[in-house]
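user: can you give me the structure for this one chain? tokens are fine.
assistant: on it. calling the predictor now.
[tool input]
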Amino acid sequence: MAGTADESGVKNRGIITATVMLATLMQALDTTIANVALPYMQGSLSATSDEINWVLTSYIVAAAIITPATGWLEARFGRKPLFLTAVIGFIVTSMLCGAAVSLTQIVVFRLLQGIFGAPLVPLSQSVLLDVYPKEQQGQAMAVFGLGVMLGPILGPTLGGWLTDSYSWRWVFYVNVPFGVLCALGILLFLGRRAEWPMAGRLDWLGFATLGLGIGALQLFLDRGERLDWFASHEIQLEAALCVLGFYLFTVHTLTADDPFIDPTLFRDRNFVIGMILIFIVGAVLLATLALLTPYLETLMNYPVLTAGLVLAPRGIGTMIAMVIAGQILRYIDPRILIAAGLAITAFALYLMTGFTPDVSQGTLIRTGMIQGFGIGCVFVPLGTVAFGTLPPALRTEGTGLFNLMRNIGASIGISLMSYLLVHNAATEQATLVEHVTPYRQVVRDFAHRLGLASLSGRAALAQIVTEQAQAVAFIDNFKLMMFVSFLTIPLVVLVRRPR
């Protein structure tokens, strides 16, 4: 059975909190920080646009496969040795990524970086839950949430600045000073758990089938849009392997004596509802960021750095909400906070359905802060509710699954929104083109201004139609996420209030 926080953990609570915050922020940043640097890497490493995307895919897939194993790894090696090894491994592989001179090298090093980075977030959350008493766990989840939520938001901004000011290699080197501070904090201040569950034999079949399902799902989602989904034999194979992996894992888990994932986790109603809600939060937050970046850069012609600066204030909204939620959680029913956060998120998305290509920066920043505030209101009480009724012995395994669901939600949300954006833009463009005829008064009014008698004039008109179709497609996606956020609120009723 698992123990509670040891004396060193309570005595050094502030330093331990800062240490795990660094670990969380480091891992969360690396999920998005490299995105803006890809074009620069492509030229430096002589890679095609399809090949360079493996720099992102390799990290995501490796981290997704290893994350569920964090509970077993902690039980086998101990929390402090595992945490320290993961941080040092992450530092070394970050340096190797920055020094890579070929595509093969950087893909292999990113794969290793994903493997070492996978335990960081679950271990950080588990440490905070153990170090803080129950009445202060809301504050602990607020601190943890800052790293998890701010990382993906700040990643593109920081990555854009480092790439523009120095080179793409600093996107990886920036991890080194943070990692060294984090490793020193773990080494000097994190005590060993007084008790932890003894590791049994690793269920290799369960781990392999779950890894197959998750890995195939991540490849399917990451590469589907580029390969035209089921028109590609690779995507068909990945979909088949995904279904096979999850089917075999489910059957094995229900029949094995000592399965890889403890079925007791799924008997806790709060934990199960929490996983569903964090899946939706991951999908809505990351899909919104994935949509707004091309919206600003393509439709509004913002430079990469400016787009990142406009998106960054939503992180301020998240910080404000998490600080407030962490303080008032002990006095208010967490279910009310979760429902309010979802409602605020839905309201922000409603405001975004009114965006046009000439929307002001003030409106972009204001709606971003509102949405960030809503997500922050959800995340803090959600972490407290999901683990409030879970036995301490299952916390690390539970945090691994919890964060895996957030990442899968983000992957599915981004892939689905990207597909719908392309599909809806093509549909809207076809609809608009039907109305562009010489017999319509609006066309005749603009004929002289655009010079439709010339090829350049007709090209300008085609560009206007394309931009309008894309703008409508973005609005359709914002509307869909608004409905998803709003319709999720009734799920909160199923949550039991933890004592």
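assistant: here you go. The chain is about 75% helix and 0% strand. Residues 1-7 have pLDDT under 50 and may be disordered.
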